[in-house]
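ok, trying the design again with the full structure, not the truncated one.
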């Protein structure tokens, strides 16, 4: 397992320095208790302690569990606003936890992986993760990822048109749901944001930077894999809707009528 001491050294994740503590996380939407409840499932005890200390002056309440079975049990027994999930865990790995969790819960999940392998990130996103973060990571980046995921999952009812129809695909901005004809489409908050953005573009190309700006509040990187995974899943989920998501090489994506 990746050692917390290496994270401290490599990324500045040092909660002992007050200057590095995140005080801007208060902008995140809070739950009814006035706190953002986060469950960290990671067998690196020291890392979990550092994360807890880093967020101690914010609006976040962190719980930590250090084994796979205990983490899954806690995640299903209690309600959390977000889960930080490590991949390499004793007893039950993060992939299996995520698979079982998605059968019963849509709680936002950020995958933490020490391996940093692209296939792990892709597998995690395909299993239902909302984002991923490879170790070592900086505390400010972790805070930004958490904030972005929570904003998407808690997006308020929109002032946009109540519904939007493209082909047989219908989107509701208020309920953040999608249908093909009368059949509902199982869609995550991230997938809805991407599909809604493409649909409202009116047949124009949406750049990768525009999509990443809405999802992650940053420009796309040359090795961005999460976006391609989400697009691939949306293509499968919208089959039969009379629309197709086309990739415009080197630019972005376009939602167009299916010519078949």
């Amino acid at each position: 397992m990746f050692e917390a001491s290496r994270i401290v050294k490599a990324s500045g994740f040092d909660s002992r320095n007050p200057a590095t503590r995140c005080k801007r996380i208060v902008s995140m939407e809070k739950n009814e208790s006035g706190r953002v409840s986060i469950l960290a499932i990671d067998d690196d005890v020291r890392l979990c302690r550092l994360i807890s200390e880093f967020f101690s002056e914010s609006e976040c309440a962190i719980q930590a569990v250090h084994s796979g079975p205990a983490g899954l049990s806690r995640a299903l027994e209690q309600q959390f606003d977000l889960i930080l999930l490590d991949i390499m865990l004793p007893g039950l790995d993060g992939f299996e936890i995520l698979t079982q969790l998605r059968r019963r819960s849509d709680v936002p999940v950020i995958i933490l992986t020490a391996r940093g392998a692209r296939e792990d990130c892709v597998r995690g996103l395909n299993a239902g993760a909302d984002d991923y973060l490879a170790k070592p990571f900086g505390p400010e980046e972790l805070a930004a990822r958490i904030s972005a995921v929570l904003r998407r999952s808690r997006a308020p009812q929109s002032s946009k048109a109540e519904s939007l129809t493209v082909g047989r695909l219908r989107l509701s901005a208020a309920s953040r749901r999608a249908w093909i004809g009368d059949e509902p489409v199982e869609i995550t908050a991230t997938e809805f944001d991407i599909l809604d953005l493409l649909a409202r573009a009116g047949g124009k190309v949406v750049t990768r930077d525009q999509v990443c700006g809405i999802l992650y509040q940053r420009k796309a990187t040359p090795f961005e894999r999460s976006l391609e995974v989400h697009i691939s899943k949306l293509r499968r989920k919208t089959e039969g809707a009379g629309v197709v998501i086309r990739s415009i090489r080197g630019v972005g994506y376009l939602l167009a009528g299916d010519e078949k």
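Keeping the full-length input from now on. The radius of gyration is 19 Å.
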